[in-house]
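Exercise 7.
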Amino acid sequence: MPATLALALAMVAGGCASLDPTPDIGRAASTIGDRSGVTPDWTQPWETALTTWDGRSPLTREAALVMALRNNREIRSQVEQIAASRADLVQAGLLPNPVLGLTLRFPVDPVSGGTFIGAQVVQSFTALWLRDGKVKAADARLNQTVLDVSDKALRLVADVKATHARIAFGEKALALSDENLATIRKSIDSLDARVRGGEGTTLDVNRARQQLAKAEAERALVARDLAKERRIMLELIGFAAESAEWSVDAAGSMPLAPPIDESGAVALALAQRLDVAAARSVVTAQQADLSTEEKSRLRDFGLGADFERETDGSKSLGPVLEVGIPIFDTNAAQIAKAGSLARVALASYEAASQRAVREARTAWIDLDTASRLTEQYRATVLALSERNLTLAEAALKAGQADVTVLLDAQRELIEARRTLLDLERDGALAGIELERAAGGLLR
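Solution. The predicted structure, written as tokens, is:
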């Protein structure tokens, strides 16, 4: 029977596909684990209270990554897209349901005859020769979704690492500001003693106090930026409303020198970048869509059976054939559209590849420059600034220089320490960006 055949074909077409997205989610989690060293557990719901970390002890980078991948609401919403794409794949393999038509006509004049009964079952088979293309496109889009989610998770990993680094360097900057304030206050005490001994003037003390006021204002700005970064971290790990009175464990920071050369960074980006791989999956999906549209010139083709009982009681049974005649719509417009979208996808893939190369190269330059500048600055500028302050203090005590020399030496040392810390921070952030631009761990 045609209806039985249609049912059997539908079972064959859709019976092997599963709606369970767990393997696809596991594939995304495994990819993230390979690229970042931290494998998320998306089979568990996000935490509603702090359990991994107590909210008071120093926050390690690893703990922050684990909590962010599990609790960040944005990434968890993206994970649900995998289930939706899995459902689309299952749907693509199904035939449309058969259509049952019933006819029941009663005579106006009971004397003229009996009741007419008709029944018709029609199954459309157009989807049968379009199924392979639709399944291929849906499978490519599922792969794209898995790669997109993995890429967004790696970007979250980079954001957490960068925020953790900024907090760590912010805490160092705050401690450095306190050291600078202590140095300036010590100088003020020494200058006060000189004034009392008749060796200095009130102007000398006031200039030092002006330097102190400026340093206190700069410390307040450092504290403000640090407070903001801590609150950003709380949002990233899924607890935006928790207390921000905590510090970070700075262990496990990025190496300052690039572990690979520029060509190695480019090779890693082309091999590992998930956004490039996702763009490649879009190309596959659009090419499959084009193939499907090219096979869709005959859009309607159905087979079925028709049963009728006439008013005189006679019965008949026969086949039904439904064919859409492509007179007005030959599907040329949809074929042209699908071809254009396929070319768009190919160009977008090439653009993603070019962008990946550019980002990897510029990130490598940033890290290489930061590492060179940091070592140079530490060996020259900072060393000279420390030596100059010692000489200025000795010259002032010996009466060979005035207080201006001391204050200038202090200011230069403070600026040198701050600049070196900024260079170290920039180097750490450049290393994190190079990891992201290369698509994962640098190995």
